[in-house]
Amino acid sequence: MNHALRIVAFAAALLTLDAACIAAEASAVPEAKQTTLGLYLTSEEVPPFLAQRGGHSLFVDVRAPEELASSGVATMVDANVPLFLLSSGDGKPRPNPDFVAQVESRLAAKGLTKDDAVVVMCRTGRRSALAASLLAAFGFAHVYSVVDGFEGDEPGAGWKSKGLPWRPITATEQPN
Prior knowledge:
Elements: H1 3-26, E1 40-41, H2 46-53, E2 57-61, H3 65-71, E3 73-74, E4 79-80, E5 84-86, E6 93-95, H4 99-109, E7 117-121, H5 126-137, E8 142-146, E9 166-167
């Protein structure tokens, strides 16, 4: 086997191993947090995941800007692209009609494509699952949902509770 074929075989073996690990974790993900791609990370797995990719990934917080202003944002987040917008009249969330286009724009700004890793996070992991599935439907190949979100839905869960780096933010500023 020549050198190039060995490299391809090794890469394929790593991808298979990575997929097997992700699939094993997927079995523990509650149904409300499952995605069509089945790619999941816990908040604690995000920093090493992003570091391993050396900038070849996009980390998106999908909460509304008002939520970020009230609870803060992970310092590693590349962009805030809300999946839902809060209505100024009744305060009820409505879908962001430009969500996919805004994520595509953020990818392009980093020189990335739909084949690069995208990590999405919300407050508890439910909206990020919806966002991941929506992006997958539009051709994004590697969208990971942070299953415990920024605050989590149980005590001790989530980015903030795990002591991961975050900061306060105003409703009018972008994370980075």
